[in-house]
Please model this.
Amino acid sequence: MRVQQKAQQQGFTLIELMIVVAIVAILAGIGMPAYQNYTDRAKFTEVVAATAPIKTGIELCAQIEGITEFKLTAAGCGELGEKGIPSAPAASVELKSIALSLSSKDIVITASNNDTTAVTYTLTGTVSQGRVTWISGGGCDSLGYC
Model:
């Protein structure tokens, strides 16, 4: 005597697979732009970090020299590689350049990245009561990189 058995269905149906593909596509559409911004911000940290030794050197120079305000003359702490302020680091994968400039009462560190968009990071230092106060800015603010 033969017993017939009904074949059991195995696997997924086409509609189930299409639903899974649609869910993955939606998640990828949301996740990829957020991930791209995250990687751009991570790359830009090299530019921000490269300004730290120069910033520290300017603060130490201002303390040691007793500077009460930065002036347009180079007599203060306005030169890279002078009076304890390190020279500008060499260009790297992410860092294009760092420059130091003086305005009427401020000192400005400007760093730019090596990307085609040329995003800048600026630190503006002002001496007040014997200490340097820094304000960051530049094109990286609008992009959320710094």
Observations:
- The chain is about 40% helix and 20% strand.
- The CA atoms of residues 98 and 118 lie 13 Å apart.
